Amino acid sequence: MKYFINEHCRGCGMCAKRCPRHAIHGAIGVRQQIRQEKCLHCGRCFRVCRFGAVEELPDGQPLPGEENCQDAPAPEDAEA
Ligand code: SF4
Ligand code: SF4
Questions:
Q1: Cα–Cα distance measured from residue 15 to residue 7, given in angstroms and rounded to the nearest whole number
Q2: Residue 20 Cα, ligand 2 centroid: separation in angstroms?
Q3: Residue bearing the CA closest to ligand 2, atom 2
Q4: Ligand number, closest to the Cα atom of 32
């Protein structure tokens, strides 16, 4: 399972306080981000968020935004 913080985030900082890997970053009051390479997939951020802003994504499903990266043409294609 992967975890992703969506647009409902209020930037309250509760998830970052609970994260054992300090994988969540962002200024207070703005949407937070999870550094996927540090995440242990423990789900604490998902359980602590009162705003439904942490989403669980099954393994293998791209994170929102990754689809666009994968679909984007390579720079050499874009120039052609
Ligand atoms: S606990 Fe929820 S609302 Fe608060 S910063 Fe984390 S994701 Fe955002
Ligand atoms: S799943 Fe656990 S390790 Fe990953 S960001 Fe959330 S609290 Fe941190």
A1: 15
A2: 7
A3: 42
A4: 1
Residue 54 lies in a domain: yes
Q: Containing domain of residue 25, as a range?
A: 2-74
Q: Is residue 15 in a domain? A: yes
Count CB neighbours of 50 within 10 A: 8
Query: What does the DSSP assignment read for the chain?
Result: -EEEE-TT-----HHHHH-TT--EE--TTS--EE-TTT-----HHHHH-SSS-EEEE-TTSPPTTHHHHHHSPPHHHHH-
Strands 54-57 and 2-5: antiparallel
pLDDT per residue as tens, the chain (80 positions): 999 999 999 999 999 999 999 999 999 999 999 999 999 999 999 999 999 999 999 988 888 887 665 555 656 655 55
